């Protein structure tokens, strides 16, 4: 390598470090936290695959548990610091979506209805008639699928949807060129678990073809103010008009925007995320 090339590499490294230091938090992907105590968790056979899940806090009389559902290409660890804040006062359940993290997949194509059925079946297996569901991104959509299913919806006491949408067009077309996307996908593909190629193809097919809902579908959701449509002030993954649209389509729903965060709020400001979930739980 010629010294001028080395010199320019050093300069560009320094520039990258400086940019990382000065970038506002909503343009960064902070390190993935661990779940409190980094638990071994439990694996349960559900709908033909092995679903990894674990629980925090203690059941409280008269309170439903909180079911935390992570987004596409993520896993429950992404909620680590949010769980840490919530578990003091709540019984919290996390599960890795099929194919993600420590859960397995089979050859069945992913659908949001299947994600919903897995989550509902886990609750049933654990003996819970209902839970407060917190869904992020793909699992905000999976949670909508649960709400639109006559059986699965009976297990949803209330729903907090962060960064969901009603069709593939509600994804922001510039998301894939953002710094957070590059960091997130890089991190996801470094995760050595499972058959990465089959997994990535299954998630990409799902996200590019589903869901396909309209206003008439969302009009069937009757939980009123027990539904919160949440987003980040600097949301980069979902079109900016989407949260207000979903809010207008779900009668009586609440609308919350987290400040100074993007689609990756649970990593960027877990305490604010937990505080908004607390408000939702007490509504
Ligand atoms: C969830 O919905 C699916 C599809 O309708 C159904 O097969 C399954 O039994 C439901 N599970 C629960 C626990 O409601
Ligand atoms: C989406 O749903 C509408 C009906 O609401 C249907 O006409 C259309 O073909 C569907 N599109 C896809 C891609 O499935
Ligand atoms: C997509 O995100 C960018 C910045 O993250 C924003 O400027 C743009 O308005 C968004 N596009 C839509 C359609 O919401
Ligand atoms: C948001 O970030 C800006 C710039 O870093 C800062 O000045 C402001 O106080 C922050 N606002 C909140 C509500 O944290």
From TrEMBL:
Show the Pfam families listed in the entry: Abhydrolase_1
Q: Which residues form the AB hydrolase-1 domain?
A: 65-137
Name the InterPro entries for this protein: AB_hydrolase, AB_hydrolase_1, AB_hydrolase_fold
Signal peptide segment: 1-20
This protein's source sits in the domain of life called: Eukaryota
What keyword terms does UniProt attach to this protein? Signal
Whether Signal counts among this entry's keywords is: yes
**Protein's UniProt name:** AB hydrolase-1 domain-containing protein
Q: Name the source organism.
A: Apiospora rasikravindrae
């Amino acid at each position: 390598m010629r010294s001028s090339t080395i010199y320019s590499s050093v300069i560009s490294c320094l520039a990258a470090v400086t940019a990382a230091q000065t970038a506002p938090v909503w343009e960064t992907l902070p390190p993935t936290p661990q779940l409190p105590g980094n638990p071994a968790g439990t694996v349960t056979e559900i709908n033909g695959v092995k679903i990894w899940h674990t629980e925090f806090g203690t059941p409280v009389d008269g309170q439903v548990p909180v079911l935390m559902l992570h987004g596409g290409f993520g896993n429950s660890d992404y909620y680590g610091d949010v769980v840490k804040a919530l578990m003091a006062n709540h019984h919290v359940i996390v599960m890795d979506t099929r194919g993600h993290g420590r859960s397995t997949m089979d050859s069945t194509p992913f659908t949001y209805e299947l994600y919903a059925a897995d989550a509902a079946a886990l609750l049933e297996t654990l003996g819970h008639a209902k839970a407060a569901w917190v869904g992020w991104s793909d699992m905000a959509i999976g949670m909508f699928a649960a709400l639109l299913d006559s059986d699965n919806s009976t297990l949803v006491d209330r729903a907090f949807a962060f960064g969901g949408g009603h069709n593939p067009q509600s994804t922001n077309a510039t998301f894939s060129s953002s710094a957070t996307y590059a960091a997130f996908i890089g991190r996801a593909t470094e995760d050595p678990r499972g058959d990465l190629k089959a997994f990535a193809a299954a998630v990409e097919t799902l996200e590019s073809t589903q869901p396909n809902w309209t206003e008439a579908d969302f009009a069937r959701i009757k939980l009123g103010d027990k539904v919160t449509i949440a987003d980040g002030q600097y949301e980069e993954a979902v079109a900016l008009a989407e949260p207000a649209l979903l809010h207008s389509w779900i009668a009586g729903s609440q609308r919350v925007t987290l400040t100074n965060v993007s689609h990756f709020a649970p990593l960027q400001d877990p305490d604010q995320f937990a505080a908004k979930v607390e408000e939702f739980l007490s509504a």
